[in-house]
Design a protein that fits this description.
This protein has about 90 residues and is an alpha+beta fold. Helices cover about 15% and strands about 25% of the residues. The strands form 2 sheets. Strands 1-5-4 form a 3-stranded antiparallel sheet, with no helix packed on it. The longest helix is centred in the middle third of the chain and has 14 residues. The termini are far apart.
Length: about 90
């Protein structure tokens, strides 16, 4: 089953200028009105939404873009329980 791609609105992804330091990997720009409205629409579609995961991708033409990762855990599998203090092992 293929889900429709959800592109992030109001967010631009660019490579840094050649003069930028090596530790600068990407530039993100947010148009606040558009991005805020998009975030609000995502929350309106799912009131329980707490996180939005965004993936930075490169199109076939070489343009970078942001796409929402729509993955959700399989409802058939029980959620993982956090480890109890007695279950934690010291690595040495």
């Amino acid at each position: 089953m293929t889900e429709e791609k959800v592109f992030v609105e109001g967010m631009l992804v660019k490579l840094p200028e050649d003069s930028a330091p090596d530790f600068v990997k990407l530039k993100l720009s947010f148009k606040l009105d558009e991005f805020g409205a998009w975030i609000g629409s995502q929350k309106a579609d799912d009131e329980l939404l707490e996180w939005i995961n965004i993936e930075i991708k490169e199109s076939k033409s070489g343009k970078w873009y942001a796409e929402r990762n729509m993955w959700k855990p399989d409802e058939k599998q029980p959620a993982r329980q956090p480890a109890q203090e007695s279950d934690k092992k010291i690595p040495w």
